[in-house]
Amino acid sequence: MSNSNIEDEKIINRLYEIHRRTAPKFENCTGISQTRLELLHELYEVEEISQRALQKKVNIDHAAVTRHLKQLEEKEMIIRRKDPKDQRFTYVSLSEDGRTKIIHYREEKERFISGVLHDFSAQERKVLLDMLTRIQHNIEKFE
Fold this sequence. Notes:
This protein has 6 helices and 3 strands; from the N terminus they run ααβααββαα. By secondary structure, it is mainly alpha-helical. The protein has one domain (3-141): Arc Repressor Mutant, subunit A (Orthogonal Bundle), CATH 1.10.10.10. The protein has a 3-stranded antiparallel β-sheet. β2 (78-83) and β3 form a beta hairpin. α2 crosses α5 (96-116). The two termini are 24 Å apart.
């Protein structure tokens, strides 16, 4: 294996390790998972939305959205209601408690991001984002 291939393998391994370690550290810092925060953020932007439309916005499968929303509902952060005209449709909105807590979660998310990108200049962040976007694009093209 050439040095180039070894370095390339290290890049992929490093990306995997960063991904694997980010979620638990994020949740520990913010008090909520990235997925649930994303759901709450989407709900913060609207008065009410159908569960199906919310699922499409966050791009996760139906079962996962249902599971996350159920847990958020148990914590009284969201309100779900069935469409009285068609019981197959569920609408979701933030509760008052959810609206209050999302502000705190956003602040903690900013603190987490700031810590992760500590000592990176604005130019380095731009270059890193460009490289990661190119990697993502290549992965999406790969069959």
